[in-house]
Structure formats: structure tokens, C-alpha cells
């Protein structure tokens, strides 16, 4: 299966570089390009795309708003595409908002080609691509926009979970991988994977990224704590 990718960035040189990398792959093609979010949304109405590589800071409609519209299903035509955010991280203050808007993950713009290709394939298959250590750094970076305390001992969303599932969710939000969670809770990695799947299903979340965001928003985990 060929993965149809759209490049959205206001810097033509960056799009050219990404295009060269992607078109060299047998399982990928650059189906479309756009220089800002508004153009991307217009193109997506007419062009089927599997994965959108989305810059954040762009004129007119920025990457956060474009991501929100795509992930809500209001734009993008049939087969709503997955969105992978491209960010400079240290300079970009919108990455957290983009993840909340529904992006399946984010990568640095200077990502090695192999990592970028792996991320596109992972997103296309339904996985998130924010590594646990990167998740931890991202949450620390944007802790000022997260609540300092929970409004109640157990937020109503989390009441759907068992005590063990809340424990696993807490460790996910702290940046632990499935293997690290298994070691800490003395469980098999397969069991942890099952818990993660149930957590996502019960909370109606798409992936680990949304699980991390929810854990902080509900106060289950606090930034810096």
C-alpha cells in the first residue's frame, strides 16, 4: 500500500527536502503540498491523503487550527488523514495545542530521514509517534498551560477506569514506555499493552498522546510532580 503524504509548510526549501526523502521510498508518495493551513484545507477537499506533515507557524490559518479542522472531520474529505506536526520545539509554543487539537504526534524539523519515515509509517498504521522521553519534555515545556490541581479527587472521565488502569495511565503520563511500566508494576509487557488498549477504548481516546493530555487536564498527574 502506498502512503499518500501531504506537505504543509510555508518554507518551500523545507518542502523540497522532505519531498526528496519521501519520493525515494517505494511505499510513499507526495500527493499534495501547501504553503499554509488555508491552502492545505482547500486542497484536502479535493485530494485524498493519508498523512499530513503539518508545520505549526504559518500565515493565514496556522497548523493548530488546520489540525483541529482536519481531526474534527470538518475538512479533509473522505478518509480523514492523520496529522504529524513538524516543530522546532524550543521555539514553538504551539506544539501542545496541536496535540490537543488531534495531531497523532510531533517531530522536530531536523529529524533524521529514517526517523521521519518511521514516524509517517507509524502514524499511518494508527500509532502515535511521540516517544515517552519526548512526551515528558513536552509536558514540562508547556506546564504553564496545564492545571495545577484537580477539581475533584477523581475526575468523572477517570471513573470509567479500574484502579490498575488509572495506575497505568499515570505512568504513561509520566513518560514511561510499556516495558518500563511492566517492570515497575511487575506485569508482563503484553498485560500492560492490554491495559493501555482498554484505557484508550474506555476514555474514547485515539492514542497515547491524547491519554497524556487527558491525564494532565484531569489533574491525575501534575506538571513537575
Write a structural description:
With 225 residues, this protein is an alpha/beta fold. It has 10 helices and 5 strands. The chain has helices at residues 12-23, 37-44, 63-72, 95-100, 113-124, 132-141, 163-173, 178-185, 189-202, 208-217, and strands at 3-8, 28-34, 51-55, 82-87, 106-108. Strands 2-1-3-4-5 form a 5-stranded parallel beta sheet, sandwiched between helices. Strand 3, helix 3 and strand 4 (82-87) form a beta-alpha-beta unit. The model is unreliable at 146-153 (pLDDT under 50). Residues 154-219 form the HTH luxR-type domain. Keywords: DNA-binding, Phosphoprotein, Transcription, Transcription regulation.
Summary of the model, kept short:
The protein has 225 residues and is α/β, with parallel strands linked by helices.
> What does the main sheet amount to?
5 strands, parallel
Oligomerization = single chain
Rg on CA atoms, Å: 18 Å
Provide the succession of SSEs: EHEHEHEHEHHHHHH
Q: How are the strands of the largest sheet arranged?
A: 2-1-3-4-5
Strand % is 5-15%
Termini gap: 44 Å
Uncertain stretches of 5 or more adjacent residues: 146-153
- Mean of the pLDDT scores? 82
The number of helical segments is 10
Number of strands: 5
- Given helix and strand content, the structural type is alpha/beta
Q: Could you say which overall geometry the principal axes of the C-alpha atoms support?
A: globular
Helix content: 40-55%
Protein name: Response regulator transcription factor
Domain HTH luxR-type: 154-219
Pfam families: GerE, Response_reg
Domain Response regulatory: 4-124
Amino acid at each position: 500500500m502506498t502512503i499518500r503524504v501531504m506537505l504543509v509548510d510555508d518554507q518551500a526549501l523545507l518542502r523540497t527536502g522532505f519531498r526528496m526523502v519521501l519520493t525515494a521510498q517505494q511505499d510513499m508518495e507526495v500527493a499534495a503540498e501547501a504553503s499554509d493551513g488555508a491552502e492545505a484545507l482547500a486542497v484536502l477537499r479535493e485530494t485524498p491523503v493519508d498523512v499530513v506533515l503539518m508545520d505549526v507557524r504559518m500565515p493565514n490559518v496556522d497548523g493548530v487550527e488546520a489540525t483541529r479542522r482536519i481531526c474534527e472531520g470538518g475538512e479533509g474529505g473522505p478518509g480523514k488523514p492523520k496529522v504529524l506536526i513538524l516543530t522546532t520545539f524550543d521555539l514553538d509554543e504551539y506544539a501542545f495545542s496541536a496535540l490537543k487539537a488531534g495531531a497523532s504526534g510531533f517531530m522536530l524539523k531536523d529529524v533524521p530521514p529514517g526517523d521521519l519515515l518511521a514516524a509517517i509509517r507509524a502514524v499511518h498504521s494508527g500509532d502515535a509517534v511521540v516517544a515517552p522521553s519526548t512526551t515528558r519534555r513536552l509536558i514540562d515545556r508547556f506546564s504553564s498551560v496545564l492545571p495545577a490541581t484537580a477539581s475533584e479527587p477523581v475526575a468523572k472521565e477517570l471513573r470509567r477506569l479500574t484502579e490498575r488502569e488509572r495506575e497505568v495511565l499515570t505512568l504513561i503520563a509520566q513518560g514511561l514506555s510499556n516495558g518500563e511500566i511492566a517492570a515497575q508494576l511487575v506485569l508482563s509487557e503484553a498485560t500492560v499493552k492490554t491495559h493501555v488498549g482498554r484505557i484508550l477504548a474506555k476514555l474514547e481516546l485515539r492514542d497515547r498522546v491524547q491519554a497524556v493530555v487527558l491525564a494532565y487536564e484531569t489533574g491525575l498527574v501534575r506538571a513537575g510532580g
